[in-house]
Model the fold of this input.
Amino acid sequence: MRPQKPQQSVPTTRKDLSNLKNTDKEKMKSASKMNSANAMPGLEVEKEQTLTFLPNGLISMEKTPVRLVEIVKRNSLKSPLLRLPAEIRQMIWNFATSGSKLAIIKLYHTHKGYVYCLKTYGQRYQWGYRARMQFRLPEVCRQINSEMATLPYSNCIFAFPNFSGKDFHDIKTWSSRLSKGHRNAITDVSISTKNYPSISLAPHKVDREEFKSLRTIFPAIQRVYLELGELEKIDPPYCQNRAKQMLGDDVKVVSMKD
Done:
C-alpha cells in the first residue's frame, strides 16, 4: 500500500475560522513589507532602524554600523570593481544611470496612484516598469551608495505626460513621496503642453507665476522638455520661447515634436 498523506485539519468552528483569518492577515502584512523593498522611485520604503539617515532622507555614511564593518573592509580590498580608481568608477556609475526617460503616469481610475514606464536610447516605453538597475545600484553596498546615491535621479529625465493642475499640483503631490535629497537632485523634467495651457497657442491670460512653482518643486532643474500637442506643433519656437520667459534664462527649454 502507498503511504497515505496526513490529512489537513479543516476549520469547523467559528473560533477556528477566526484564527485562520488572523493568520492570513499576518501573511498579507508580511508580504506587504517584503514588497516595500521593491518599491518604485517616489514610493515610500520602510527604513532599516540600524541605519542613520540625514535630514534630506539619504543614508548617512559618517558612521558604519558595527555589524557591517568587516563587510565594508572586505569589499574595499577584494572587490575588483571597488578597487578601480575613483574616476573610473564615476564613469561607470554615470554610464549605468544615464540615457533613461522615466514616465510617471497618473492613474485616475484606481487607488494605486501611479504607474511607471521606462524609455531608453530611443526605445519604446516599457509599461509596468519596476525599478531596476539604475535605481537599485546604490543599494549594493555602502561605498557605492556614498558615490552615486543621487545619480539615478540627476541622470534621468522624469516625464509627466498626463499630469495637470494649477501650480503643477499633480507633480508636487508625486514629488512629495521622494526624499528631499533625491528630489533636489532632479535636473531634467518633461511635461506636455496640452495639459498646461500657459505655454500653448490657446488664447488666454498667461500665468507667469505658475512656472515658478516648478522651480520650487525641483530646485536643481536645468532642462525642461516640452512634449508638444497637435496645436503646438504648428509653431514650436513660440511655445519654447513662452516657457523660457516663465522659467528664466538659466533653464534650458527643449521642444519635442514626437
Remarks:
- The two ends are 71 Å apart (CA to CA).
- Residues 86-256 form one domain.
- Strands lie at 100-106, 114-120, 156-160, 188-192, 223-227, 252-256.
- Residues 8-12, 30-49 have pLDDT under 50 and may be disordered.
